[in-house]
Write a structure and sequence with these properties.
mainly alpha
Length: 83
């Protein structure tokens, strides 16, 4: 078993204690989520095939691709700038 050390501001730590949050359990959950995104693994060969197929569909114009309209771009830029 390994130990992970984190530095937390005193006020945040006190808030965690006051709320009765089990930090160790939350960290275990978070680390599990980082390791398992619930998507099935695929092989490198399968990944290459999917990319190849997508490129073929694009080059053969079998799929419809649309660019975002100017309004959407402006809204997204404003949203990103607000973060």
């Amino acid at each position: 078993m390994q130990t992970i050390k984190i530095d937390i501001e005193d006020t945040l730590y006190q808030s965690i204690i006051d709320k009765g949050i089990n930090v160790q359990e939350k960290l275990k959950d978070m680390i599990y989520d980082l390791m398992n995104d619930d998507y099935p693994s695929i092989s490198t060969a399968e990944a290459k095939k999917r990319v190849f197929d997508a490129v073929q569909r694009y080059e053969n114009k079998k799929d419809i691709y649309r660019s975002y309209d100017d309004n959407f771009k402006k809204e997204m830029d404003q949203y990103i700038d607000s973060l």
